[in-house]
Amino acid sequence: MLSEAFRLAWQRYEDGEALSVPWLYGVVRNRIGDEYRRRGRRAELQCQLNEDFALRMPVSDDLYAEVRDAVERLPQIHREVLKMTYWERLTAREIAAVLNMNSAAVRARLMRARRMLRAALSELQDPAVEEVPTHE
């Protein structure tokens, strides 16, 4: 957060714009506000997920670990967009700005990430069972 404020100050300095203490305070204040909002969204999401899981099915710690592991096994680009969407609750436009890409590309990447995660979780849910031939 603080490093971002100084990066913005340095960029402004390199662009030849004037720097002032009030401007820097404003930047830091905005970054702190962003961080509080991010934490609030994350806490909100966690509560929502807890309620959803509590209503649908009992969930063991093993399942949480399996889901977390499945997400972590995804390629970085897919894991990143999933976390920004569901943990940080960013919109496709906001994610596009962070990743320096367009919104359509973010939505496509999110779709692929969901598909990959769904496949990984379905393998956990329905492990392939070998059929044993019977002789009748």
Low-pLDDT runs: 129-136
Structural class of the helices, strands and pairings?
mainly alpha
- In whole angstroms, the N-to-C terminal distance is 70 Å
How would a textbook summarize the main sheet?
A: none
Oligomeric description of these chains: single chain
Q: How many helix segments? A: 6
**Helix-strand topology string:** HHHHHH
CATH class: Mainly Alpha
Report what the structure shows.
It is a single chain. The protein is mainly alpha-helical and 136 residues long. The protein has one domain (1-50, 62-125): Orthogonal Bundle (Arc Repressor Mutant, subunit A). It is built from 6 helices and no strands. Helix 4 (76-87) crosses helix 6 and helix 5 (92-99) packs across helix 6 (103-125). The relative contact order is 0.08. GO terms for molecular function: DNA binding; sigma factor activity.
Summarize the structure.
The chain has 6 helices and no strands. The protein has one domain (1-50, 62-125): Arc Repressor Mutant, subunit A.
List keywords for this structure.
6 helices; Arc Repressor Mutant, subunit A; 77% helix; mainly alpha; RNA_pol_sigma_r3/r4-like; elongated; transcription regulation; disordered C terminus; RNA_pol_sigma70_r4_t2; 136 residues; DNA-binding; 0% strand
Question: Topology of this protein?
Answer:
Elements lengths: L1 H13 L6 H36 L4 H13 L2 H12 L4 H8 L3 H23 L11
Protein name: Sigma-70 family RNA polymerase sigma factor
Organism: Mycetocola reblochoni
GO biological process, one term: DNA-templated transcription initiation
